[in-house]
Q: What sequence folds into this?
């Protein structure tokens, strides 16, 4: 569906009773998550709690065993390990994904590169980039089509302080335009930034009390 | 504020040419393969030619039943060329396909049609395989000058085996997990396959069992054209059959491994 072609939906993502097992080992046992437009949601859990599994299911990368998933709008997914082509330059990555999304031009891509502060690497191949810059490109590709909901798996690993601040500026800008962001992390700094904080325990999500009043998402 | 309307506008970069361009780039960035072409191919020709020249060998053409008595050096040059082409093409395609698999999947999730990527990849592999075959066939001229028609038969044989091992590399690239497994299978497969067709190294050459190897068709076509003045189209088609079979299986697995997993 083209962004902007319908009125903003009440929810941009709804996962109901999600179950997933690896062999006999259950990872998710009835996880539920609802995300509204413009919301910032954190899914918090210890290592091995199934956070990445949940995000991959939400992104459609991994099939679920049982449950339902509804994503009425467009979705962007930023995997934890950057998925790039080491032979292509930053600029070529932008062109490839502009073609994938059939976008009219590279403007948004260039804007994101500027916002994340790595313009000087435009002609470097992904193989030549540092870990942090690869992460920025990874994020840029997930955001190129300005999705209604963005799924991020441990996004600020490898970011320096300045990039960390730029990242939050970018998130603020997305939210101001009613774009929702779901972040998966094992550590939450600055809890009050989030509308919803949900703990992933025993394969289920439990919402934590949050400082924001406009919280209308249930986990 | 809603996002700008994008879908009705024509994209600056159309999917197929973009995918083709970057697929070719992917297949040609392999520096080790470039070095192998520049150094290994001539050295391999030199060594094999020095080892076998002057010796007369019997080679059976299956289509006609004719047994040709030919210069072992020249025959071995064809074997050596086929062998180089199997290794280099297989290696180039395997390495590129394996490394790009996760990225291709991301492209599909971003909206690329799988068929567009498959078309671009197939065309890129064909172009690269043909270029490697052409180079290897040109390099043979430093050691041996066959007739014009004979050289074209050698080139066609090299091109078909390049396509076959390019397709084999593609299949392994979507199938195996680690580099080493793929390299081993390509090198051993290519070595066994091409070496067994030559009576110099294999006393069992000219035995019917060799018909079941991928390089049988290209070797028969090349030798038939270069020494027997016959054009064995059936054998060229047999070689193409192997290429088609490998690439079909490989592309089906590619399709499965890059598909979306939910019906959102």
A:
């Amino acid at each position: 569906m083209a962004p902007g072609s319908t009125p903003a939906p009440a929810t941009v993502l709804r996962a109901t009773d999600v179950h997933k097992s690896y062999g006999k080992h259950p990872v998710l046992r009835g996880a539920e998550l609802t995300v509204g437009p413009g919301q910032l949601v954190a899914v918090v859990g210890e290592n091995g709690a199934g956070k990445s599994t949940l995000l991959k299911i939400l992104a459609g990368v991994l099939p679920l065993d049982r449950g339902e998933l509804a994503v009425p709008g467009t979705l962007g997914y930023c995997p934890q390990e950057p998925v790039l082509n080491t032979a292509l330059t930053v600029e070529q990555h932008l062109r490839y994904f502009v073609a994938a999304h059939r976008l009219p031009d590279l403007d948004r891509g260039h804007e994101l590169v500027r916002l994340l502060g790595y313009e000087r690497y435009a002609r470097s191949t992904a193989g030549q980039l540092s870990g942090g810059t690869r992460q920025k490109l990874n994020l840029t590709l997930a955001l190129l089509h300005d999705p209604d909901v963005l799924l991020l798996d441990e996004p600020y690993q490898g970011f320096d302080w300045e990039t960390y601040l730029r990242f939050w500026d970018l998130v603020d800008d997305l939210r101001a335009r009613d774009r929702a962001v779901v972040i998966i992390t094992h550590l939450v700094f600055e809890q009050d930034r989030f509308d919803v904080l949900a703990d992933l325990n025993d394969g289920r999500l439990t919402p934590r009390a949050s400082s924001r009043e406009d919280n209308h998402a249930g986990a | 504020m809603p996002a700008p309307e994008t879908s009705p506008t024509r994209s600056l970069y159309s999917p197929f040419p973009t995918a083709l361009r970057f697929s070719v780039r992917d297949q040609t960035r392999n520096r080790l393969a470039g070095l192998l072409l520049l150094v290994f191919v001539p050295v391999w020709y030199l060594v094999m030619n020095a080892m076998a020249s002057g010796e007369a060998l019997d080679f059976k053409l299956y289509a006609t039943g004719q047994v040709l008595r030919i210069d072992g050096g020249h025959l071995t040059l064809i074997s050596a060329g086929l062998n180089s082409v199997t290794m280099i093409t297989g290696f180039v395609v395997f390495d590129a396909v394996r490394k790009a698999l996760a990225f291709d999947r991301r492209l599909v999730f971003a909206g690329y049609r799988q068929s567009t990527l498959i078309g671009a990849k197939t065309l890129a592999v064909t172009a690269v395989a043909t270029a490697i075959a052409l180079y290897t066939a040109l390099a043979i001229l430093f050691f041996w000058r066959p007739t014009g028609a004979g050289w074209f038969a050698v080139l066609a044989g090299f091109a078909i085996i390049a396509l076959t091992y390019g397709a084999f590399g593609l299949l392994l690239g979507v199938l195996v997990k680690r580099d080493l497994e793929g390299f081993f299978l390509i090198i051993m497969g290519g070595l066994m396959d091409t070496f067994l067709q030559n009576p110099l190294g294999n006393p069992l050459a000219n035995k019917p069992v060799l018909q079941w190897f991928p390089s049988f068709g290209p070797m028969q076509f090349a030798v038939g054209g270069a020494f027997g003045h016959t054009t064995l189209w059936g054998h060229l088609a047999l070689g193409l059959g192997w290429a088609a079979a490998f690439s079909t299986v490989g592309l089906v697995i590619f399709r499965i491994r890059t598909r979306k997993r939910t019906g959102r």
DSSP finds eight helices and two strands in chain B. The helical segments of chain B are 15-28, 31-52, 72-109, 114-139, 148-175, 179-196, 216-227, 233-257. Strands of chain B lie at 56-60, 67-71. The longest helix of chain B spans residues 72-109.
